[in-house]
Specification:
Number of helices: 19
Strand content: under 5%
Family: Belongs to the amino acid-polyamine-organocation (APC) superfamily. Amino acid transporter (AAT) (TC 2.A.3.1) family.
Main location: membrane
CATH superfamily: Amino acid/polyamine transporter I
Protein name: Amino acid transporter
Structural class: mainly alpha
Membrane topology: Multi-pass membrane protein
CATH class: Mainly Alpha
Number of strands: 4
Strand order of the largest sheet: 1-4
Subcellular location: Cell membrane
Low-confidence stretches: none
Mean pLDDT: 84
Distance between the termini: 40 Å
CATH topology: Amino acid/polyamine transporter I
CATH architecture: Up-down Bundle
Helix content: over 70%
Length: 477
């Protein structure tokens, strides 16, 4: 593979990895849980994710030729944990990819519904077309992937900046908006843009401590896969110059794109108004609400277009990442079958690994159409969320082992006060995992993750033990 990604590509890939569909569609539910204090939750979780990235960044800076940060787990924690993390992470990427391709088709249907066009019968075709297009982008050249992510990120950034500017203007002019019929027929009462919308009846935990604690897990998953930028290092020009800047810029991006957007939303819409719009617990997109209050009646179409872009960006990145992780697994595996996935195409990309991952993602329409299989998929997908936390913990443990190893690079991209901050990061991830047991909706995820750890983690540990035993026996002969 070749180093074709530039500083511009990596910086916008990092931005794209930070901004997902959760901000555009899920922030209303986050605000409903804990009101204005959700801003503090986003800042706290964002800082922890920044520390995670500093740990990953230090490892990748030490050896920028690695295709994935998972390989460091193998190096410092052993092949057993490496196999567990590698296969688990790749499996999670595929499951998330299946969810994202389903989301893309769903958002497309909603987008066309705003123009009274029904394409619900063509969801499967939308999924096939989108996935095929993104696979082609990933197969052509890594530079094309970088350019695509650049423009995807630009679209997302433009909407967020437009939201913030709109909010500032509305507050400055003291804008009053009438009762408005929002997307879906919901009638929202009249109001006005004001700083008082945030501070009126302010409470740190307006819905109790349980809701406040649950907001941490929700925000955590909004930041999920922020680590993706670490996978691009082996294909980046001047990685030791570009990577630190991309990672250190995460704090600024969090403050602008998450905190800035949330504050802008609550300046216009009183936080008490964020409630589920139906029995299924669906929440109106705050972005749609803000723009419709501003008189932009085509706001629903605009926001859903950007949401489709965000989901496409996520799927594009997942294909890239899944391909590289499967390629790394194939390199480290002695299996002749997996060995076939080590081949790099003439365009210098792991084509077979990308295609293999995409074929599994393409099973999404089939899985969704079979009731029994769909139920199992939901179970695995929910458990994958918990597995991500485990992998993050393993990465931080790996970072700690690296700092104590002979490989330690004293003049590298060092995490400051690593003993304290590394432990703090691990403790936070454990805390988030514990919060999964609070809600009935996420308890299955937590239990499923533990089952996966015991069964697959146990198998990987035993397999490593058997390999070491056989090797020791061979050496004694």
């Amino acid at each position: 593979m070749e180093r074709s990604l530039t500083k511009r590509h990596v910086q916008f890939i990092a931005i794209g990895g930070t901004i997902g569909t959760g901000l555009f569609l899920g922030s209303g539910k986050s605000i409903s849980l804990t009101g204005p204090s959700i801003v503090f939750v986003y800042i706290i979780v964002g800082l922890i994710m920044f520390l995670l990235m500093r740990g990953i960044g230090e490892l990748m800076y030490k050896d920028p030729n690695q295709h994935t940060f998972i390989s460091f787990i193998t190096r410092y924690l052993g092949r057993g944990w490496g196999n567990f993390a590698g296969w688990s992470y790749w499996f999670v990427l595929v499951l998330i990819g299946m969810s994202e391709i389903t989301a893309v088709s769903t958002y497309c249907v909603t987008f066309f519904q705003t123009f009274d066009i029904d394409v619900s019968h063509w969801k499967w075709l939308i999924e096939v077309v989108f996935l095929a297009a993104l696979v082609c982008i990933n197969l052509v050249a890594v530079k094309l992937f970088g350019e695509t992510e650049f423009w995807f990120s630009m679209i997302k950034i433009t909407l967020i900046v437009a939201l913030i500017v709109t909010a500032v203007v509305m507050v400055v002019i003291g804008y009053h908006y009438p009762a408005t019929q929002l997307h879906g027929g919901v009638i929202s009462p009249a109001g006005h843009a004001s700083v008082n919308n945030i501070f009126n009846n302010f409470s740190l935990v307006p819905n109790g401590w349980v809701a406040f604690l649950m907001s941490f897990q929700m925000v955590f998953y909004a930041y999920q896969l922020i680590e993706f930028v670490g996978v691009t290092v082996s294909e980046t020009k001047n990685p030791r110059k570009v990577l630190p800047k991309a990672i250190n810029g995460i704090i600024t991006r969090i403050l602008i794109f998450y905190v800035g957007a949330l504050v802008a939303i609550m300046l216009i819409v009183p936080w008490q108004r964020f409630k589920a719009t139906n029995a299924e617990g669906t929440f109106m997109s705050p972005f749609i609400m803000v723009f419709q209050y501003a008189g932009l009646h085509w706001a629903s179409a605009l926001v859903f277009f950007v949401v489709i872009t965000a989901a496409s960006s996520a799927l594009n990145s997942l294909l890239y990442s899944a391909g590289r992780h499967m390629y790394q697994i194939a390199i480290e595996s002695p299996s002749p079958i997996l060995g076939k996935l080590r081949k790099v195409s003439h365009t210098k990309v792991p084509a077979r690994a990308i295609i293999f991952s995409s074929v599994l993602i393409l099973l999404s329409p089939v899985v969704n159409s079979i009731p029994g299989v769909h139920g199992a998929f939901i179970l695995f997908a929910s458990a994958s969320s918990a597995v991500i936390i485990m992998i993050y913990i393993l990465i931080m443990v790996t970072h700690r082992k690296y700092r104590k190893s002979a490989d330690f690079m004293a003049d590298g991209f060092l995490m400051p006060h690593y003993k304290l901050l590394n432990s703090l990061t691990i403790a936070f991830f454990v805390f988030v995992y514990i919060t999964l047991f609070i809600s009935e909706d996420t308890r299955v995820s937590a239990i499923g993750g533990l089952v996966w750890l015991v069964l697959f983690g146990g198998y990987c540990a035993l397999h490593e033990h058997w390999q070491n035993r056989d090797l020791a026996a061979a050496l004694r002969k």
